[in-house]
Predict the 3D structure of the following.
Amino acid sequence: MGISSILSDIKNDRNSNNKNLKDNSPPLPKIDSKEFQKVLDTRRSVRVYKNDDIPDSIIRKCLENALKAPTSSNLQTWEIYWVRSNKNKNDLIEACFSQPAAKTAKELFVFVARPDHWRRNNNMMLDYLKTRNDPPKSVLNYYGKITKFAYNQGFLNIFGFFKKLMILILGSFRLIPREPTSFNDMKVWSQKTTALACQNFMLSMRAYGYDTCPMEGLDSTRVKKILKLPKKAQICMAISAGKRDNKGVYGKQLRFDKKIFIKEV
């Protein structure tokens, strides 16, 4: 698999002619933007919950919605743990420093980034494509060659090191994807995808009338032990869920001047 061939494939893939693509999109339903805005405006990090249960059907729907989040190369390097046993719940609450958002929650979830699953999921994509009637060659090429070049870092990151060196040289005179070239880059890549799933989940819960609190204040090593996760798994965040108590939101939402963050260039 030559480097020049891979780079040519990447360029061709990004510049592929879309005229031959079929329109497989179903008709789009009408969207009530005001209702969506209400979901956004009322989503808060809730730290005290009522004792109301959340129906399993709603939880499962929100979990399914989480998996509809955008995911890089559709490799879906995420896992969601719905912590249900009393022992695991109590252990997780302790690992979250027994904060009220965990202690008073009816349900607890842990979102996990799995950069180590990229190859397995890539092969699943290839297997799926091969069952399709006449899959586009560009898509087969993408999962057959490009992703394997992009996400493979090699033993002890040796391949990643040579990729980085090559990128430094070739990138001085041509456009080229710069990352990932290390295991740390892979962690960031997978965490971004998993965080998008977290947001989908929290907005879905709000849309169904329930609330959440994302918790990064936790002992990740303890959490991995509770969930029996391997070393390469990365805790993205724990999320508690339940019915909002009137005392559950600690003050008015504060956002700094949008001009600080939104740049028009």
User: Anything to note?
Assistant: The first helix runs from residue 3 to 14. Strands lie at 78-83, 107-113, 211-215, 234-242. The radius of gyration is 22 Å.
